[in-house]
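BUG-598 | component: ligand-complex export | severity: low

The export step for adenosine-5'-diphosphate jobs runs without errors, but we want the raw record kept on the ticket for reference. Input record follows.
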Amino acid sequence: MNKMSVFSLLRQLWPYVRPYRWLIAITVSLTFLGSLMAQVNAVVLDRTVDAINALIQQGDVLWSRAARILVTISIILLGKEVVASLVTFCQRYFGERLRILVSRDLSLQVVSRLLTFRMAFFTADGNETGKLQSRIDRGIMSLSNTVNNFFIEILPLFTSAILALVLMFLANVYVGLVALCIVPLYFWVTNIQATRMKGGRRSIFQSHQAVSQGILNIIESITVIKSFNRQDIEARRQEDIQLAMTGQQLATRRQSFLFNGLKSFLEQIGTVLIIILTAYLVLIDYPGMSIGKIMYHVMLFSNVSAPIRQLHRIYDDLNDALIYAEGFFGLLQARDQVEESGSYRPEKVQGDFEMQGVDFTYPGGTKALHNVSLRIPAGKITALVGLSGAGKSTIVNLLDKFYQPDCGRITLDGTPLSEWDTQWLREHIGLVLQKNHIFEGTIEENILYGNPDATHEDVVEAARQAFLLDQVMQLPYGFQTSALQLSGGQQQRVAIARMFIKNPPIIFLDEPTASLDAIATEQIRSSIDAIKQGRTVIIISHNIGQIIDADQIYVLQEGRVVQSGTPQEVYRQGGVYKEIFDASARSMNADKIAQTMG
Ligand code: ADP
């Protein structure tokens, strides 16, 4: 059922464990020592019982000898306990250390991988933020648990069990055989338990996800919920999920207790069988058997059965790891997802783009561009116009090399985009989106994102150019204020300041003022005017005021270029552009505005 076997899981984990092989070697040695320690009680008890028995049978108890026996066992048992505690401590600590280090390495590795992936990866089906995140979280958790389980739990328990079995066999073959026969029975019951409970575990896991997703939804939509007075509906929805989960939880628990009871019972049967057998052997005076040996075998048998009691938990963990490992290693090994890059890094980038016969389909299967040919001349402003979904942003995505076209040719300054060094290309492009990402941190840090080497003076200058300076100065902490506290319009100016400080020769503006008020739009238009000098600018906008400022426009409709030329030419041609333009003027109520102003 699982595509991955335990063997291939361990093989894939090995590179992450290998750097810590000394840690493992030490832990395993300690483990062995610990296993030896675990058998000491049995040996001591065996000897003590026999020695005391011998004393009693002499008739008159020799107290000096009895005292010697008692002192000796006290020293041995206490000494053993001291050593065993030390061993256990080191073993636990080293094991935990191994788990923490491996988990750190795995997460560092996966993050650095993720950063190299191409855009298409992040928009592909199944890679949505939440899913990706849970794949990574669960993968790291269950894989590092596996490492811990395997080296720190399974190994000690099983060495101890095997050692105890060997000692039993050495003392008496028959008793050893009885103990050995019980073991497969345990495995069998555990296996049934794990299989039966797998479905339950999975559905509880899914319910947990549903619960947290539900709570998340409530918090996110609290305004809507309250304004529609839909608290009851939401509460009921949560109740349904909770009720379903309660049922599952109780059923799983019940099953788990039943199986645990069955296993305890089996263990007791084993112990009883061993007592009967050893007692019988003592009674018939079998060579090597004594009363002490009854104790000896019973204690050893508990060492054999102890690990098997843990088996179920380890089995579950391992099963989870097998499920999560696939998705996780899938991420680490997705070499085909790594963004491609050429090596072309010219001294100067002009910004002359050309697209010829470009088709493009998104990973989800939406065909967004059909046979698009256009030219973005260096140093000019080009506006992309069209209704929502026409493919304007897609063109910008392709020019920034976020995606590869299905077919056709895209060149920048005459060199195919694929031959360009991707980082170098993006170093020369400034991208401002409708909603720009503001990182957690101060305003200054957010502006510096555009150029980490810039000085504070550069930041102030960039803020001034983006019409942000006055507003920042009014804030209590100025540039040290958290950027997340800014309003949408102010955040947009941070993004524009970020572009000023980066100072690229090419600028893509994707509806930069869509979420701004009129004054801010006006100011940003002035900042755009200021930066467009000598740069290549592509602007996507629904604001006709910004469109008519362009040197040329391309009109897109359903992924095709339908018109192009200067704004006046295209308007005179009629068609889609004229429709958009006129509707836009009407929606602004241009006549009344003119009357009001007149
Ligand atoms: P515009 O910028 O003109 O509003 P877009 O270029 O964003 O339009 O979108 C063009 C088409 O591509 C639309 O049909 C849209 O649904 C689709 N699309 C956009 N982004 C993605 C994506 N990441 N994955 C799949 N389809 C997308």
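Assignee comment: Attached the raw record above. The first strand starts at residue 353 and ends at 361.
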